[in-house]
Design brief:
CATH architecture of one domain: 3-Layer(aba) Sandwich
Bound molecules: adenosine-5'-triphosphate
Strand order of the largest sheet: 6-7-8-3-9-10
Radius of gyration: 19 Å
Strand content: 15-25%
Oligomer: single chain
CATH topology of one domain: Rossmann fold
Order of helices and strands: EEEHEEHEHHHEHEHEEHHHH
Helix content: 40-55%
CATH class of one domain: Alpha Beta
């Protein structure tokens, strides 16, 4: 039975008087791969920043279990945030440090583990993301896809309950992006983490997402939520259909006509049939 992990209620996101999104309400269950999607500038990264505790909502609540991220004391909030692992677009590795030193950073900062234990944990995390043996490499010596995976190893250093990704496949070729998607699913399954991903890559959305929220830039609120495949099959909102078919369909009739050629739709049909 699904267990709610994150509950967002009546959330308004704003920069000063400029409201980006209002009235956002959705639930992310434990083990979900939850996609935050929508067109450019609709507020996806802004929502992520609110969810990880970097920006305070103008209104509403974000609950992790029983605790409201913005309703608890600063100390409690910091404790909650320790349960998050975040991978930013760039991977954000320190270029002057080896991969091992990068992954070790959160461990030296937030734990009392000794150097030998840290070395062992670092190797374990790097192995988890397919980078065993790359401990002494510098970020500039490895590919973009490997840098992302090293960033992921660092995000996982403290065994987070929830992994957040901001545009994980940005800048990656399609094969590396697919490898990263596979890795995200593998980690979710093996570690039992909940995963929240900001992306507008359709292939990723359909490959890994089982739940989502769709933010609309014009109406400044969410216009759909749930399993992206179900949204594609069942939504009759032209904005949602256009997004999920790369502009090819805005009605269910368009969608039916597209079905044989559109990879995303085909993918959906294959798995259903
Ligand atoms: N620090 C800021 N101060 C004021 N406005 C901002 C700030 N950061 C972002 N915005 C505005 O908020 C809106 C949402 O930005 P955000 O980056 O969250 O959108 P997004 O959906 O992630 O966009 P993209 O897909 O292009 O990355 C945009 O109009 C942006 O210009």
């Amino acid at each position: 039975m699904a267990e709610p992990h994150i509950r967002v209620t009546g959330l308004t996101l704003a920069y000063g008087d400029f409201v980006i999104q209002r009235d956002l309400s959705f639930t992310v269950d434990r083990g979900d791969v939850f996609i935050i999607m929508g067109g450019s500038g609709c507020g996806k990264s802004t929502l992520l920043r609110h969810m990880i505790g970097l920006q305070k909502p103008a209104a509403g609540h974000i609950h992790y279990g029983e605790q409201g991220l913005w309703d608890v004391s600063e100390v409690e909030r910091a404790r909650l945030m320790r349960r998050f692992g975040v991978l930013y677009q760039s991977g954000a590795l320190w270029s002057s440090m080896t991969l091992a030193e990068n992954v070790a950073l959160p461990l030296t900062e937030y734990t009392r583990l000794g150097p030998a234990e840290i070395r062992e944990l670092v190797s374990l995390k790097l192995a988890l993301v397919g980078l065993a043996g790359f401990e002494d490499y510098y970020p500039s010596e490895i590919s973009g896809g490997m840098q992302k995976r090293a960033g992921l190893a660092r995000a996982m250093a403290l065994d987070p309950e929830i992994l957040f990704f901001d545009e994980p496949s940005a800048g990656l070729d399609p094969v590396s992006a697919k490898l990263l998607d596979d890795l995200i699913l593998h980690l979710r399954d093996s570690l039992g983490s909940t995963v929240v991903v900001v992306t507008h890559e359709l292939a990723s959305i359909f490959a890994i997402g089982n739940n989502s929220v769709f933010l609309d830039a014009e109406s400044h609120t969410m216009i759909a939520s749930g399993d992206p495949r179900k949204l594609l099959a069942e939504s009759d909102d032209p904005r949602v259909l256009a997004f999920l078919t790369r502009g090819e369909a805005t009605t269910t009739a368009d969608l039916a006509a597209l079905e044989p050629e559109t990879p995303e739709v085909q993918w959906y049909s294959d798995e259903q049939g």
